[in-house]
Structure formats: structure tokens, C-alpha cells
Write a sequence for this structure.
């Protein structure tokens, strides 16, 4: 079993990179990739550690990158990257766009929407959160749900599921909760270009979580056919067997690589466990053989 999608406290996970390695070893994972959001600093930290004393499996350098696609936000997983080249580009692109400053901006915007909807919320300066390590959308969602009276004012699917709120509402340009991040994120074209410059492979992760894409198969094929995509995340913590089978067949048909992972965040997302996701995930070791056969698999 392998897990090629997890997050450390270098982005929005709770575990340190050392804790991730120890847990991966305990779970007997054969290969892992730490894929923090928009940063490779976790892998840079690992470079200065004798990882063999913590973890006996394969560590693949990776990162999860956000980008803008047709006025929507999607993510791309990059593997086999030169972490120095990728981090240099990330530092340059996000210079002056620090996580805290950007998240504070989004929080103000979402809070204003809550006021327009007459929701029961604390005063904005009384909201306790860490803009350096938390997302504005998750913070606002937590505050909305903290008062049961808001349940009558919000759609049921928004109230029940943060992922619905994030993908169906905050990423939906036709929704009042939409967050315009076009000034803060690269386009998909620019992002894929930088992944290739860093010698990496570009994968589309958790493709079925995008609630705004009404026809998921058309959406998937549009991206695969028109952009330099190398692979798909076929195994994910909330995919059905039918969804996984479709993606595996798509990869086989179009000659794409396969990947899979839990999207583990530690205590920040306690319902998802490393390696096994929500209890039904089992990413087969064999998918990495195709990587080894067709490309130079970079590892630590």
C-alpha cells in the first residue's frame, strides 16, 4: 500500500514531516509523497534529515498547487519535481502575497457575505484563528456552524459539509460566497509550464470533488485533452469504485500515469487517516511500476 497525497504543518496539516514519516513506517506504507499546498519546504526540511532512520519506504518529492482555470480554482499535484526549482518559482510568484495577508482578505470578503445574509456571527475582530496556518473559508464555515440558528438560513448541503461549501459555493462564480482569487493564483497554463521546468509530472487530483462541474467526465476529458497532463489521481478517500474504475480505464486508454492518496491532514481532518482514507482506501503499490518503467523516478 502507498499514499501519494498528504499534508504536513508546512501547509495546512497538523503533523510535522518527521511525524508523517514515523506514521508511514508504522503503517508499512511502501511509498509516500508529502504534497503540501503551494510549498516544497517540507521536502527541503527532509533533505537535512537522515530519513532512513525514520522511514524505510520510498519518498517521492511532491507538491499540491492551486491554479485558476476558467474562473474556477482547481488543484494540480506535481511529482518528481526538482524541489529547489519549484520552490524558487513559488517564492517569486507569491512574493508580496503572503498566506496570512491573502487569507485575511478572503475572511473579510466572506464575513461581509455573512452579514448580507443576516447570519449570526461574532464580531470579525473576535474570531479566533491563525491566518498563517488556517484557511479563511474553513474559519468562516466553523463560525457559521457554531450558531444553530444559521441552519435555517443556509442550504442543507452547505451546512452539512465543508467540502461542499468550499467547492460548490466558494469556488462557484455564480454564488454569493464566491471568492475571486484570479489575482492571487497562477493560470493552469503557467502552472503546468513551471512543473515541466522543474522536471515534474502533473496529475489531476480528487477530480470528483469539484461540485460545480456538472458533467464530471466532460470536465475530466477537457483538461486531459487540452493540457499537458501526465496522470490522474485514481484512488482517493471518497471515490466510489465506479469513479476509480472510470479513472483507471481513462489512464489506460490515454496512456496516463496513475496515482492515489488519502489527502491526510492529521487532526485538521480527523475523519481521514493516512493510507486508508475513510477506511476504504487501498492504493496499490503496482501503479508505481509504470512510473519506474517510463520515467526516471526521483526519490530522496
Amino acid at each position: 500500500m502507498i499514499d501519494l497525497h498528504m499534508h504536513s504543518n508546512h501547509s495546512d496539516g497538523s503533523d510535522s514531516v518527521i511525524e508523517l514519516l514515523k506514521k508511514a513506517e508504522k503503517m508499512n506504507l511502501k511509498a509516500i509523497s508529502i504534497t503540501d499546498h503551494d510549498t516544497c519546504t517540507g521536502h527541503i526540511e527532509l533533505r537535512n534529515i537522515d530519513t532512513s532512520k525514520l522511514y524505510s519506504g520510498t519518498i517521492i518529492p511532491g507538491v499540491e498547487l492551486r491554479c485558476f482555470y476558467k474562473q474556477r480554482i482547481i488543484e494540480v499535484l506535481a511529482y518528481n519535481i526538482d524541489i529547489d526549482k519549484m520552490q524558487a518559482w513559488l517564492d517569486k510568484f507569491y512574493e508580496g502575497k503572503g498566506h496570512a495577508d491573502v487569507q485575511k482578505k478572503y475572511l473579510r470578503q466572506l464575513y461581509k457575505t455573512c452579514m448580507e445574509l443576516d447570519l449570526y456571527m461574532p464580531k470579525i475582530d473576535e474570531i479566533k484563528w491563525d491566518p498563517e496556518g488556517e484557511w479563511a473559508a474553513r474559519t468562516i464555515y466553523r463560525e457559521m456552524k457554531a450558531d444553530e440558528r444559521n441552519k435555517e438560513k443556509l442550504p442543507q448541503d452547505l451546512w452539512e459539509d465543508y467540502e461542499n461549501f468550499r467547492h460548490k459555493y466558494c469556488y462557484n462564480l455564480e454564488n454569493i460566497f464566491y471568492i475571486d482569487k484570479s489575482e492571487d493564483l497562477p493560470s493552469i497554463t503557467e502552472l503546468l509550464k513551471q512543473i515541466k521546468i522543474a522536471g515534474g509530472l502533473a496529475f489531476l487530483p480528487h477530480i470528483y470533488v469539484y461540485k460545480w462541474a456538472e458533467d464530471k467526465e466532460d470536465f475530466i476529458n477537457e483538461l486531459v485533452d487540452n493540457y499537458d497532463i501526465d496522470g490522474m489521481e485514481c484512488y482517493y478517500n471518497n471515490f466510489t469504485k465506479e469513479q476509480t474504475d472510470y479513472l483507471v480505464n481513462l489512464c489506460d486508454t490515454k496512456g496516463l500515469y496513475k496515482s492515489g492518496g488519502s489527502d491526510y491532514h492529521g487532526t485538521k481532518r480527523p475523519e481521514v487517516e493516512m493510507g486508508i482514507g475513510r477506511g476504504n482506501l487501498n492504493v496499490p503499490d503496482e501503479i508505481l511500476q509504470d512510473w519506474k518503467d517510463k520515467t526516471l523516478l526521483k526519490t530522496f
